[in-house]
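Hello forum,

I keep getting stuck at the same step: I have a sequence, I want structure tokens, and every attempt I make locally crashes halfway through. Rather than fight my setup again tonight, could one of you with a working pipeline run this one for me? It's a single chain of 220 residues.
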Amino acid sequence: MAKGKSQTPSLPEPKPRRRRVRLPSEAELELWRAVTKDVAPYTPQNPAPVPENGDIPLLPPAANPARSEPAPARRPQPPLPDWPSRAQPKPETAPPLTGLDRRTSQKLSRGQMEADVRIDLHGMTQIVAYEALLGFLIRARAQDARLALVITGKGESGFARHTLHSVRFHPTPERKAVLRSQVPQWFHEERFRELVAGFQPAHPRHGGGGAFYVWIRRRR
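Reply #2:
Ran it on my machine without issues. Output:
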């Protein structure tokens, strides 16, 4: 027996199976005839004529929008009439301080009137005192109060006696109370002029040089 490699016998290739087509049964044919007996074949009413040479006509080319007729030119609009300009109304400003009438001022100088409301600003910084005083006067006016007592303090100087020579305010150099000198300046600002009609230093029994009588405007 000759020596050599063993050869594996080749297997025959499998033959493709034919798919059997099942024919409809007689019952299925009868059912199909019953369903389609009333169906008419589709025939188009106006079929497009087929050219004799068999060529299909092409659609007409679309119009070129770039070559379309230009839009009609707009007619120039007539200029608007030159209306007379209205003068802008001037913004309303707060009225100036009118001061107190003579009779009321004399009563206050003699300490014969008591304040309806009061506020003590002593010890506050200028920023805090400014907002506190403004809010206080707004609330006092809403309550229809007329006379307010605003206490500012006399400062840290030992010279604290009352120096009220008249209804006018005369700050003395010995006193270095910041609020006592700032509050009268605030009253001349527009925000305060809307609320304050006038003011003057208080009587000694109401604080003297460290306080002010403030006459509040009536609500409009």
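Confidence is low (pLDDT under 50) at residues 157-166. If your local run keeps crashing, start a new thread with the error log.
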